Amino acid sequence: MILGFEHRRRFRDLSEQEVLALAISSEEDDARIYRSYAEHLRADFPSSAAVFDGMALEEDGHRRALIDLHTARFGDVIPLIRREHVSGFYARRPVWLIENLSLDRIRDEAKQMERDAARFYTSAAAATTDAATRKLLGDLAAAEAGHSERAQELTDEHLTEDDRYTEASAAHQQFVLTWVQPGLAGLMDGSVSTLAPIFAVAFATQDTWTTFLVGLAASVGAGISMGFTEAASDDGEISGRGSPIKRGVASGVMTTLGGLGHALPYLIPDFWTATTVAIFVVIVELWAIAWIQNKYMNTPFFRAAFQVVLGGALVFAAGVLIGSG
Asked: Which of 12, 184, 255, 313 is least surrounded, with the fewest CB atoms within 10 Å of its CB?
């Protein structure tokens, strides 16, 4: 059960035994988090996983030192007090959310964990009157503050230049597979497939509000369809393309944006002004698609531009012809 704010203790009201107990439970939790990071990374980033294994061992050492001090001062029974029992105390990200974190973000999370722990030990050391406890907490504050250096030592120990290059390449490839590819497919679908219905309605009615409504419906409908299709087509377990939810969101959002780009100008009441702006937006969209293909998919820019612009021009022409007929 999670305590409400009114039932939490303030840090300054904790006894020295409770401060030690809180430090022990915090070290236990941090070690578990580091091991969870390591396990999450082990398949794709084994060298970085070894770094987090080493950091977990560091936290184990801190916990043992704190337990020894508690035993010497207060006995073997350690009060149950955790972060969530203390008002305003720093919190940790739920471990299950690491599924949504990149390698760089996990490293940033670890750095923030060490900064939080250093501040805690500094405050705890200032709150105690026992010399031995004050010394240990001060030493732990210094150790946590210096963990970035220790993390760098572990990184240097476990990560060779080849390992760094391999992991960076793997992280980039995962980013492309999970976000760029589905997003690009959605942007292409939303930008190109909605050209014909939007411009057909525009030239058939010359009514900007009707055109906008058709464009909005087509964009949102296509986004929902593409998002669900992408999410349902592959769970990512075998293909390694990552979370189906992430891919579905990327595809659905970019599909919707691709269509809305040239639908929104029809909020302008004047038909020809709206159409001129919409055509300009279409050109920007098509060149953006070509740029993304070139940057992330290694497609030669002019070949990508030719393919996208030609396809878009044909769909646009079809819509205009149909609408003008």
From this structure: 12
What is the model's pLDDT at position 7? 67
Q: In terms of domains, do 52 and 91 share one?
A: yes
The C-alpha atoms of residue 11 and residue 31 are separated, in whole angstroms, by 22
Q: Which secondary-structure segment (H or E) carries 87?
A: strand 86-87
**Structure tokens given for 277:** 């702006």
Over range 239-252, report the average pLDDT: 78
Contact 83, 89 (CB under 8 A): yes
Domain coverage including residue 178: 170-324
Query: What's residue 4's pLDDT?
Result: 45
Asked if residue 289 lies in contact with residue 188, where contact means CB atoms within 8 angstroms, the answer is: yes
Q: How far apart are CA 60 and CA 162, in angstroms?
A: 30
* Distances, alpha carbon 302 to alpha carbons 283, 292, 308, in Å: 15, 12, 10
Does the model's pTM come out above 0.70? no
Q: In this structure, is residue 282 part of a structural domain?
A: yes
Regarding whether 214 and 145 lie in a shared domain, the answer is no
* 3-state SS, residue 114: helix
Same domain? For 107 and 44 the reply is yes
Nearest to 13 by CA among 118, 96, 89, 65: 89
Helix (H) or strand (E) holding 10: strand 9-10
- My answer on whether 151 and 230 are in the same domain is no
Residue whose C-alpha is closest to residue 83's, from 33, 31, 24, 22: 22
Cβ proximity of 202 and 275 under 8 Å? yes
Per DSSP, the three-state class of 86 is strand
Question: Strand, coil or helix: what is 9?
Answer: strand
* Residue 164 in domain: no
pLDDT per position as a tens digit, 153-189: 555 555 556 655 565 666 666 677 777 888 888 888 8
